[in-house]
Specification:
Radius of gyration: 16 Å
CATH topology of the largest domain: Gyrase A, domain 2
Shape: elongated
Number of helices: 4
Strand content: 35-45%
Number of domains: 2
CATH architecture of the largest domain: 2-Layer Sandwich
Number of strands: 10
Low-confidence stretches: 159-165
Length: 165
């Protein structure tokens, strides 16, 4: 089975010195997008606490760190099930890690991918959210993709410190 669901999460942007972003990584749920930039994910409803945690760690190492709630700027599509990785091959030429994150072209747009076994979280700028959904449904239709109704809560990986509910 191949499930597609929109996931809801808190998304916080941290732009700071590489050392400050290194300190933020200890929180878990961090997608390092550049040496001086990261997106930090947390459960929906945790954005205020997440901003506070990220800001505290980042500004301890960089007084000029920028920490912003970027939740509205991102759409997350979760593809999960035993055929999730196979489905991804119809969307992108990127090589998925078993666990971890990558970024690059997926369905002709720039996407950040968090791979966790048979679960892939695809983060795309919100303006491209419907495009990505449509491409997943069309390009993976032959795999029996089933879209779940309503959003699901994003959850951190097991053992991650990213649970801030």
């Amino acid at each position: 089975m191949l499930e597609l669901a929109r996931a809801e999460a808190a998304v916080v942007l941290c732009a700071a010195s590489p050392e400050a972003v290194d300190a933020v990584e200890a929180l878990g749920g961090v997608l390092r997008v550049a040496p001086d930039e990261a997106l930090v994910l947390g459960p929906v409803g945790s954005v205020e606490a997440l901003v506070t945690d990220v800001r505290g760690r980042a500004t301890a190492n960089d007084d000029d760190a920028i920490v912003l709630d970027a939740t509205d700027g991102w759409t997350i599509w979760t593809v999960r099930g035993s055929r999730a990785r196979e489905a991804f091959t119809f969307l992108s030429a990127l090589e998925l890690p078993h666990e971890g994150s990558i970024q690059g072209e997926v369905a002709r747009v720039h996407v950040k991918v968090v791979a966790r076994g048979d679960r892939l979280d695809l983060l795309v700028p919100s303006m491209w959210g419907d495009h990505l959904r449509g491409r997943i449904r069309a390009d993976c239709a032959h795999l029996g993709v089933v879209e779940l109704p309503g959003p699901i809560p994003w959850t951190p990986a097991e053992g991650s410190q990213g649970d801030r509910t």
